[in-house]
User: Fold these one by one.
Assistant:
Number 1:
Amino acid sequence: MPVYHYRALNAGGMVVRGQLHADTRHALEAYLQAAGLDVLSARRAWVSKYSFRGYQTLKVDVCTFLFHLQRMLDAGIPLLASLALLQSQASPVLSSKILCVRQRVESGDQLSTALHKSIAHMDAVTIALIHAGEQGGLLTSLLLLAARRLQAQENRRRQLLTLLLYPLLTLVLTGMALLVLLIKVVPELALFLRNLQIPAPWYTQGLLGLSGMIVTHGVTIMIVSSVLLLVLGAAYLMFPVCRLWVAHGALKVWILGKLNQKVQLSRFIHALGALYEAGVPLLDALGTSLAVVTNPVLKTGLATARHSIVQGMGLAQAFAGAGCFPPLMREMLHVGEQTGTLASALQHLQALYEQDIQATEARLLALIQPTIMVLLGAMLGWMLMAVFGVIYDNLDRMVL
C-alpha cells in the first residue's frame, strides 16, 4: 500500500505532519478528515520494504502495541477506543499506521484484516493468530500469545547481537590497524631494505609481496570483488536454481548448517503449534507457518509435505517422505499424531530444539573470540617478525 507524507491542520489550528498508508490521495484525505484534520498538502513517498525503520517497527513498536492493546481489551475498553488511545501515545511512525487500522475497523474490517492491510511488516503468523482469536472469541488470549512470540524473537536477536558485538568490533578495529600497517609501514620497510641492500628472508618477502599487491592493485581488487558480488547477488535473486544451490550448501556447512536447520524448524514448529492450538485447521496452519521459513530447501520440503497431507497422507509420513527433516521431528510428530496430542508434541519438540540451539550457540560463541584472537595474533606476530626480525639479523650491516 502506498505511503503519503502529509501536512494538515488540527482542530486547534496547529500544523501537524506525518505519514500514512492509503490506497489513494482521496482515501488519505478521507482518513484525515475523519480524524479531525484538514489536509494542506500530501505527496506520495517511496518506502523500501526492507528499510531498517520498517524492521524496527515490526520487532519493537508492533510488539509493544500488541501488548498494550491486549491489556486494554482485557480491561474492558472497546476496540476503537483502545486504538485511539494507543494512536495518541505511539511513535510518529506507528501512530499513522494505527490511525489507518482504526479507520479500517470503523469501516467494517476485522482487526486482523485491518492490521494486514495497514502494517505491511506484520508477519503472516501474527495475523493468523489474531484472526483465529476473532473467530474463536479468544482475541485477548491470542493477542498476548502473538505479542509474546514477537518479544521472544526480538529478545533472541538482541542477545545474539550483544554476544557478537565485542568479537566483531575487535575484528574490525584490528583488521583496520593491520591494513594501515600494510599500506603505510611495510612499504617503508621495503624501501629501507633496498637502500641497505639487505636480503629479506622468506617470511619478510611474503609480507612485502602482500603489501605491494594491496598498494598496487587494491583498487582493482575492490572493483572486481564488488562487480563479482553484484553478479552473484543478481544471479541469486533472479534464478531459483541458484537460491536452492546456496540454501542446500548452507545446510551442509559444518556446525552452522545444522544450527541453521534447527533454527528454521524451531520457528516453523513454534508457529505451527501456536496456530494449531488456537484452533486453526492443520492445513491452514501449515500453509501460514511456511512464511517463517526462509531456507528454500526446507521451505520446498515443507510445501511438499503439506501437499502430501492434502492428498490424504498422515502428518508424520508426509514429513518423512519429504526427506529433509531429522528423525527426531518425524518421531515426535508420529507420537503426537497417534496419541491425539499433536499440540503437546509440537510444544515439546520446539522446546527440545530451542534447548539444543541455545547450547550450540553457546559453544560457538565460546569459540569465536579465542579463534579471532589466535588469527589476529598470528597475523600480528608475522608482521612483527617480518619487520623487526630482518633488522635484528642485519644490525652489523647497518651504518650508525
Number 2:
Amino acid sequence: MRKPAPQPKKAIVLGLDGAHPELVQQLVREGKLPNFERMVQQSVFKAVTEPFPAVTAPVWTTVATGACPGTHEAPDPFQPNNSSEPADRADPAFDGRNSKAEHLWQAAERAGKRSILVNWETSWPPKGDGIQLEGYGPGLVNLDDLAAELTEEVGPFFASRVREAMEGGSVDKAAFYELQNYQHQWLAKAIGYLVETQPWDLLFVGAQCLDPSGHAQPESGSSVDDRRDNLSHNYQSIDRVLGSLLDLMDSETILAVVCAAGLGSNMRSELPNGPASAHQASSLVIMMGPNIKKGVRPQRLLDLTGIAPTLAYLLDFPVPAQADGPVLWGVMEDPDAKYKEMKLVRKQLDRWKKLYAGLAIEYDLNPRPEID
C-alpha cells in the first residue's frame, strides 16, 4: 500500500465578504491579482452555492459552523429585539451569541487546539479561549494586554467604516482607498505578529471591503469604467492581504479563501451576467495545501456547509456539533489518506502487541495482553 498523502496540521481561512468568482477570474486574467493567480495555480478553485438567505450574517456563520441557517439561526440580517416588539425595531444580526451552533474554533478547543480570529464577521463577543480581534472591525481584543501590545508593535487601527464616510461625502475616492489600504495593511501586520508570538492551529481572517464598496457604488453618475476601476482597487488591496497569508504557508498548513455573501446588485454592469438582486447565492472557494488538489476546478457541486467539516476532517479536529454539511472529498488528492494512515497505525500496534506478548511469556509479566 502506498503511504498516505501528507496531512495538514494547521489551517488559515480568509473570508471575503462580497467577492465574486467571475470578477476574481477576470482580474486574474488581466494580471491585476498576482497572489490570487499564484494561489489558483496550486489549488482547488470552485464557484459554490450559498445557503439561503445569501446575506452576510447567516452565510459567515454557516462557513464557521458547517450548519445551515435553519440550524444555527443567525438572523437575516436584522432581528427584532424580542418577539413581543414590532418587526421594525431590530438589532443588528452580527452578534455571535445569535448562533445556536458550535463554531469550528470551539470544536478545535475540545481537542486542545488554539485559534486566532481576526475580524471574522459574527464572531464577537468571543466564544472560546483563543485570541480574538473583534468580529466586525478589530476595534476590540479579548485580551487587554494584547490590545496594548498590538497598538505598540503594529500601530493604531482606524476602525471607522470608510464606506459610510465616502457615502456621506466626508472623504473622496482617494481618501477612501488610502483608509482601506491602511486597514488591510494593519490586518496583515497584526496577523504576522500574532502568528509569530502566539501558539495557534487555526487562523480565521475576515476582510469586508468588497461588499461595502459594492453597496456604495452609485447606480448613475459614473461610468462603467470608473466603477470597474474602483472594484479593481478593492480587489488589489485584498490581493495584498492574501499575499501576506501565502507567506505564512508551509508544508503542514492549508489555506482556504472563502467568499461569503454575493455581490451587490449595483455591480451587475461590471459582470458579463451580473446579478439581479442585492445578494446572490454564488460564492467562491479556493483551497491549497497538503492533500489538496492543485490547479483543479471540480465538476461536483460544492456547498459552503462543507468547509468546516472538511477542515475538521483534514486536521483531525472534532466536527462542530451542529454541522449539517458533508466532507468535500472532491477537493482532496487522496480521500483515503486517513484510512491508509489508520491502517498503518493498526499494523504497528499489532506488531507491538505481539512483541509485548512474547516478552510477557518469556519473563512471566502480568498482565498479559490479549491478541486476537
Number 3:
Amino acid sequence: MAGVVAGVGGYYAGSLTAAPKPIERTVTETRTVTAAATTVRETVTATVTAPATTTTVTKTVTAGAPPTGPVTITLACDAGHNYLPWFDPKEAPEGGHYGQNQAPKIKEVLGIDIVGEEVDPGTEFSIYMADLTGPGKYNIIVYFPTYNGDILGGGWAVPLDEYIEKYRINLDDLPPVYRYLYCSWGGKTYALPYDGDFHALYYRKDIFANPDIRKKFKDKYGRDLEPPKTYDEYLQVAEFFTGWDWDGDGEVEYGTVEDFKDLTWGIFFDRFASLGGLWFDEEMNPLVPNDAAVKALEDLVKITDYMPPGFLEFGALEVFDCMTKGITAMTLTWPDVGPRAGSGEFPVKGDQVGTALVPGYIVGGNLLRYSY
C-alpha cells in the first residue's frame, strides 16, 4: 500500500543580523507593495546600534485570495508502475494502462501544473526525509506507509480532514486497515489511499487445467495439480514447471517469480507472518532471530531455484511481465497482474490467469495464510 501525503509549507524568518557598524541613524519607512492580487502594507524598521546592526522586517500578508497565475506543485513518487497514474506516455483510450496519466488531465481541468520526479523505491525514505528537513521542494509525496512514524508522527505532513469534509470525500467504503492504519496518525487523516495493495498468488489457469500436464504432475507427485495452499506445495509446483516448454511456444519456462529487487522484506514477511512469527514481545523486546524467521528465510532461498535467470534484478514490472508474457506459471505479487492480463495487450490474456490467496503454513493444526 502506498500513501499520498501533502507536503509541508514554508515559513517566514523575521530577524536578520548585519555586520557591526557605528551608530548612524534609525529609519522607519512604510510603503505599499502589490503582489499576487493582494495589496499589502509593509513596514520596514531598520535600527542601527553599536556594536552591531539589527534589521527587523515585519510582513503582513492577506491569505486566501485566489491565484492570479499558473499554479505548479511538485510531486515525488517511487519510480515504476506507481508513477504511471500520474505520468504515463503510453496511455491509450483502451488497453493495459486503463485511464492513467492523470497529471495532464488535472492541468486541463484545474489549471494546476504537476511537476513529477521519480525516486528509487529503495532510497525514497532517505530522499524524502532529506527534503522534509531541508529544502522542502515536494508538495506531494507517494510512499509506503511503513514510514508513517517518521513522516506523519514527525509532524511533516498537513492534515487533510478539513479538505475531506469540504469536498465531501467518501472514505466510508475503505477497509479500516487502509483508512486508519495507513492514512491516519494521532486521530487525524494525513493521506489518501493510492494503491491498495496486497500480495496474492497468480497462476496460469489454462496450464493448470491442461489434462496432459495434470497427468504428468500426478504421475510425479501423486496428487492433483492445484493452486498451492502451503509453501511446501508452492515449492513443489514451482519445481514441476521449471526447465521445460509447458506452453508449447518453443521456449523454456519457469515455475515462479517474486520481487527480490525492491521488496525482499515483503515476500519474507508473507512467510514469516504465516509461520506465526513476531518481531517483538509486548514490551517491545526483539524476538528475532527465531524459528519462524529462520524457516521463512530458508524457504525464500529454496524458491529461487525455480525462477528465471536475472530474477534478482526484477522489480514489480518485470515480475508482472513474467506472468503476462508466459515466462512463469505462477507469481506472488501485487494485484496488477489481473488488469494487465485483462487488457489484451500481452500474450497471456485475462481468462488464462487465476488468482488465489498466498500459500501458508500449518501452525498448531491450522493453516495460516498472511499476505503483506
Number 4:
Amino acid sequence: MRGEPASLSSVMGGLAEAAKFKALCAGANLALHDALSDDGSVQSQVRRQDLLRKAEQARVEQENADPEFQSETGRGLYSGAISTVQQLPGMAASLALGNPAPALALGVANTALPAYSKYLERGASKTEAATGAGLEGALEYVTEKIPMSYVLDKFGKGKMGEFLKGYLFRELPSEQAATLTQDAVDTAIANPDKTWGEYWAERPAAAYQTALATAVQTGTMGVMHGGAQLAKQHYIDQIEPTYRPDTALGRALLQDINDIAFNPDATDQQARNALDPGRAQLTLYPYGASSRITDRPDDYAGPLSRAASRIAPSLVPSSTPPDSTSDPTQPSVTAAPVSQELQAILSGINQIDPADAAAQLQQQIDAQNPEPKPDRPPANPDWAAG
C-alpha cells in the first residue's frame, strides 16, 4: 500500500515521518529483546510478538506516508531526500566533533536495525535475520567511510566546485556499490517472492534512482559547505579581529581597553596605603620635596625657613631608645630617613636670601610675559608734579 499522489504536501509529510526514525527504534527494541530478554517463556513470547507488530506498523506507516511517484526520477529524488534527512543528525555531530563515528554509527543503525525486523517479518530465523542485518550494516559502513572522511577533511575549505566534484567522485561509486550488494543480500535471505532474475532486471532502474539520490545528497552537502564558508568568512572579518592583536582592528581595540583600564583592587590598595599611619612621611612639597628644595633653594623665603627651623629639632631622632614610661598614645617621630631629609632641606633653606628670592620671582614672571607693559600714569598728576 502506498501513500497519496506526489505533491508538495505529501513529500513534506513523508520526510517528516522519516525524521521520526520509527523503523529504527522499533528494530532496535526487537533486536535487544531477542539478544537479551528472550528466554522462551510465554511472557517473553508475548512481548516479542508485540515488538514484531510495532516494527511492522512502523514500516507500514512510513510506506503510507511516502508519496506515490509515477516516474523513476521522482522516486530517485525522493529517496535521496529521505536519506539526507535521516543522515543529517549524524552528519552534524561528526562535523561538530571532527570525527566520522557519529555519522557512520547512525548510518549503520538506520540500515541494520530496520533490516532485522524486515527479515523476521518475512519468516526468517533469528540467525538469518541477524546475518542479513549484519551484512547490510557492514556494507553501509564500508561504502560510507570514504565519502565521510573526505567531507570531514574538506568541509568548509576550498572552492565549491572542487568540493562537490571530490564528494561526488567518492559518493556515487560507493552508493552504487551499496545498492548493488545490499539488494543482493535482501534477495538471498528469506525472500521467497523474489528471484535472481528479478534482481538483475531491477539493476538499471535501481542504478538510476541511486544516481539521483546521490545528486540530492551532493547538492545538500554543497549548500552546507557554502554556508560553512560564509560563516567562516564572517568570523574572520567581523569576530576574530576583535580579539586578535595581530590585526589593525584588534590592536585598536586593545589600545582602547588599555586606555580605559581600571583596576579596582590596585586603586583600593593605594587608598589603604595612603591612609596607613605606618606609611606616613613628613614632606614640605608633595612631589619630591628633598630634590625640589635642595636643587633650587632660592625659590623659598624666610617664613618657611623660620617655620622649618622651629620644628626641625623635634623631628631629629634620639640615639637612645624612647622612654618606656612615656604615654603610648602620644606619637613620636623616630624614623631616621625623615630627619635626614629635613636636615638636607634645612641646609638649603638657611641659604635663602628673601630679597634675592623676590627678585628671581619677578624675573620668572617677566620671562613668562615678554610683552612690555606701558607705564601706568600716576593716579594724581598734580600730586606727582608737586
